[in-house]
User: Fold these one by one.
Assistant:
Number 1:
Amino acid sequence: MIRMNLALMKAQASRPLMWVDRLLSGDVSQHREWRQRLARIERTESLFAERNPRKRALIANPGRWRRIRRFGTAGLVMSLLPTTAFTVFWTWIYVTEHQLGLLPFVLFGLPMLLLPIIARDRFERAGLNAMAATRGSTMGSRRASAAVSGLVRSFLAGFAAGGAVVFIQALLTWFMTPAPTIGQEIVQDLLDAGQWGVITGLVTSVLGLTMAIDPPEPEELTSGAYPELPEVGEEC
């Protein structure tokens, strides 16, 4: 998750292979074991990469960790809506109006494979930061603090995820309809990415309001800096 290093990127890159094996072999128990081990790797790497005591306490808390993970999954799903709409629309334009055959499917489709990695990382980070930024001595003040923090961070996470994917897609259109200069191409691609990043952020920002549900208690943010991790196989 949270500060992606090489080991964590390798672990996350193995997810598609896990699902391929699950579909081909039908071995549910093996798939569950792999998922549990992968979840533990991600949690361990996140814990040791994080230096903020409040965030470390949240990562080490099994209930809060599961919520961070669910928040990342929900953010990914919500990010898929505008980015898929952009992909389908521009693929249709390039196929029908420019008569480029299957090339648009490839150039617009490949960057979508990056969305699960980018979006989950950004939204897990957003969920963690929103909970860590929660302030207030009463439940009402903590709910308001978590909601505002979640709203802003969810917008930024959606902007980053949607904007990054759309920028890569727009950049690849250079192979089909290049701009007169590379500078003009990059400027136009940045404008497209910014526009769809904002749209994605507006869609996903609503998710941040769910942070008002069960915000962390003050004592949950001040536990030990190096709490014990669960054993392999425990749900993360």
Number 2:
Amino acid sequence: MKKLAHFTVISLISLSIFMAGGCKKETEDPVPSFTMSYDSVNLQGGGKGLQFYATCTNNGVSMGKINIKTPQDSLYLYDQKGASFDKNAAIGMQESNTAYTKIKGTWKFNLAGSSKGGTAYSIDVTATVSK
């Protein structure tokens, strides 16, 4: 009888340890999902300009290089240099107090960096300027 009680206690302890270890959930690190927006601004020398923003709606990110292609196929490169942003933060696609010359049409962006959990990403997004 004593052996049975000892066996039962050891079995319960082993089962508890197994279940506690087996119930851990893996930390989710979803692929970032971005929405684009822009503001129309006045340029210092006259004329209209655009400031673009990307918002990651499902994860925090570190932002690296951003390739930007205008509707007229001009290319720009902007580097956030690994800056970290929380989920839903508006991430500028240009230096502070600067803007791109306003061109109507579809602007294309390739955003590269890593998610909060460290998974690398390279994502293509667009913003259509109609006004």
